[in-house]
Design brief:
Helices cover about 30% and strands about 20% of the residues. The chain contains 13 helices and 17 strands. A hairpin with a 3-residue loop joins strand 12 and strand 13. Helix 8 crosses helix 13. The relative contact order is 0.15. It binds adenosine-5'-diphosphate (ADP) and ribulose-5-phosphate. Keywords: ATP-binding, Kinase, Nucleotide-binding, Transferase. Its cofactor is a divalent metal cation.
Length: about 425
C-alpha cells in the first residue's frame, strides 16, 4: 500500500490538535483534546496520553497510509530528563519567569540583545534547574516538542532550530555558539535539526501500537506559533501573522534578522528569510479569564469598532510581559472596570490591539521589512469586531489566514511542503 497521508500534531497552550492531510494538502481528519486543570506533576503524563489518544483517534484507513508525522510544542516549554527520557522534575512552562533570578548570570555569558536575555528563555530555565539538588541526575534538556517526538521515534536529545532558538542555538551558523558550548551543562543540549528534517522511522513498538506503517517517518518539529505561521501560507516579506491564541504572538516575514532584548524581539530562521517577532503574555487567556467563548462572541456584537473607549488597559493575568515590553515585573492594567460587560470587553480588545500595534511598530523601527498585511490565526481570529478594531490600530489590511490551525502548519511540515 502507498503512504498517502501526513499528520501534524499541535501542542498549544490550552489543548492539542491533530490534523491529517493528503498529498494535495487537503485536510482528511481533525481531532482535538483540551487540557483542563492539570497540575505540574501531571503534565508529562497528560501530554503523553493526549498524544497517544489523538493518534489513535485518526481513522484507521488514514493511519495505515501515514507517510510522516511532525509535532509542534509551545516555545520554551522545557523538560529535564534522565537517560531513559523520564522527566526528573515537572516541566517548566513557556511563560514561567522563575528564570529572572538568572538574568545577571545570563548577561555575563551571552552577547548583548541575545534572545536568551529574558526571564522566560529556555536558557534561563536551564540555569534555574542547575541550582536544584536533582540536577545532577539530568542527562537531557529537551523542549516539549522534542520530548513528544522522542515518544514516537525513540531517539533522545534531538531538537529543531525553531525550538532551540531560546536556548541560544545560533540559527545562522547552525551550531551552538562558543560561549554556550563552554558552559558546564553543555552535555545536556539537544542535537539540532532543520525543522521538517527526517529524524527517523517510528519505533516498531509505536508502529504496532497505532497500526502505522513501519516506514512512517518522524520529522523534526517546530514551535506552536511558527506552525500557525506555516499554516497561513504567507510567503512574501512584509506579510505577517498574528496568533490570537492564549498568548499574542507576532511574526513578520522579513529579509533582515533583528534582535532586541529590551523589547523581547527575536528572529526565527525560515528558509532564506527571517521571522521577526515576539510573544506577549497578553491575549486570549486574559479574555477567557473574564468571559467564555460564547460570551466573547455575543458581547463582541455589541461593540462598535469605529468608536474607541477611554480605557487604557494592559491586559495581563499576572505581572510580567515579554514583548513588546520585556519586563518580568510589568504590572497588569485592568481598571477602571465599567459595569457594562461589552464596554469592559472593548477595553480588553483595544488593549491587546494596542500591544499588537506597538509590537509591529518596534519590529519595523528595528529594521524588519515594512508591514504590508496582517493575517490572523488562533482562537481570536474568528472575531470580526476585533479584526476591525485591530485594523484601526495597525493601518494595514487585516484578514483571516487561509488556514489558521497550527496542526495544519505542522502537517505541511510533515509533508515537506513549507518555505523551509
Ligand atoms: N470570539 C472570540 N473572540 C476573541 N477571542 C476568542 C474568541 N473565541 C475564543 N477566543 C480566545 O481564543 C483562545 C484560544 O485560542 P487557541 O488558538 O485555541 O489558543 P492556544 O494558544 O491555547 O492554542 C482563548 O484564550 C479564547 O479566549
Ligand atoms: O507564547 C507562546 C506559547 O504559546 C508562543 O508560542 C511563544 O512564546 C512564541 O515563541 P516562538 O516565536 O519561539 O514560536
Amino acid at each position: 500500500m502507498t503512504n498517502n497521508y501526513y499528520l501534524g500534531i499541535d501542542f498549544g497552550t490550552s489543548g492539542a490538535r491533530a490534523i491529517a492531510i493528503d498529498k494535495e494538502k487537503n485536510i482528511v481528519a481533525t481531532k482535538q483534546n483540551s487540557f483542563t486543570n492539570i497540575t505540574a506533576d501531571e503534565l508529562t503524563q497528560t501530554w503523553q496520553d493526549t498524544l497517544y489518544q489523538l493518534i489513535a483517534e485518526i481513522p484507521l484507513d488514514i493511519r495505515k497510509q501515514l507517510q510522516a508525522i511532525a509535532i509542534n510544542g509551545t516555545s520554551s516549554t522545557v523538560l529535564l530528563c534522565d537517560r531513559e527520557g523520564k522527566a526528573i522534575a515537572p516541566p517548566i512552562l513557556y511563560d514561567d519567569a522563575r528564570g529572572k533570578e538568572e538574568l545577571e548570570q545570563i548577561n555575563n555569558i551571552a552577547p548583548d540583545n541575545h534572545v536568551v536575555v529574558s526571564a522566560t528563555s529556555s536558557l534561563a530555565k536551564l540555569l534555574w534547574w542547575q541550582k536544584q539538588p536533582y540536577f545532577k541526575r539530568a542527562s537531557y534538556f529537551l523542549h516539549q516538542a522534542d520530548w513528544l517526538g522522542y515518544l514516537l521515534h525513540g531517539k533522545l536529545g534531538i531538537s529543531d532550530y525553531h525550538n532551540a532558538l531560546k536556548l541560544g542555538y545560533d540559527v545562522e551558523h547552525l551550531s551552538y555558539p562558543i560561549w554556550l558550548q563552554k558552559q558546564p551543562y553543555s552535555h545536556l543540549y539537544p542535537q539540532v535539526f532543520t525543522p521538517g528534517a527526517v529524524i527517523g522511522n517510528l519505533t516498531p513498538q509505536q508502529s504496532h501500537r497505532f497500526n502505522l506503517p513501519a516506514n512512517c517517518i518522524v520529522r523534526a518539529g517546530t514551535t506552536d506559533s511558527i506552525a500557525a505561521f506555516l499554516a497561513s501560507g504567507v510567503s512574501q516579506p512584509g506579510e505577517a501573522v498574528t496568533s490570537l491564541g492564549s498568548t499574542l504572538v507576532l511574526k513578520l516575514l522579513s529579509q533582515t534578522k533583528i534582535n532586541s532584548a529590551l523589547y523581547g524581539i527575536y528572529s526565527h530562521r525560515i528558509g532564506k528569510l527571517w521571522l521577526a517577532g515576539g510573544a506577549s503574555n497578553t491575549g486570549g487567556a486574559v479574555l477567557r479569564h473574564f468571559f467564555n467563548d460564547e460570551q466573547l462572541q455575543n458581547l463582541s456584537q455589541h461593540i462598535d469598532p469605529k468608536t474607541r473607549s477611554s480605557l487604557e488597559y494592559y491586559p495581563l493575568l499576572k505581572p510580567g510581559d515579554r514583548f513588546p515590553l520585556n519586563d518580568p515585573d510589568l504590572a497588569p492594567r485592568l481598571s477602571p472596570r465599567p459595569t457594562n460587560s461589552s464596554d469592559f470587553l472593548q477595553g480588553l480588545l483595544e488593549g491587546i490591539s494596542r500591544i499588537e500595534a506597538l509590537g509591529y511598530q518596534k519590529l519595523q523601527e528595528l529594521g524588519a521589512d515594512k508591514l504590508t498585511q496582517v493575517y490572523s490565526a488562533g482562537g481570536g481570529a474568528k472575531n470580526s469586531t476585533w479584526q476591525a478594531i485591530r485594523q484601526g490600530y495597525l493601518n494595514v489590511l487585516v484578514t483571516v489566514a487561509a488556514n489558521t490551525q497550527a496542526a495544519y502548519g505542522t502537517a505541511l511540515l510533515a509533508a515537506n511542503q513549507t518555505l523551509l
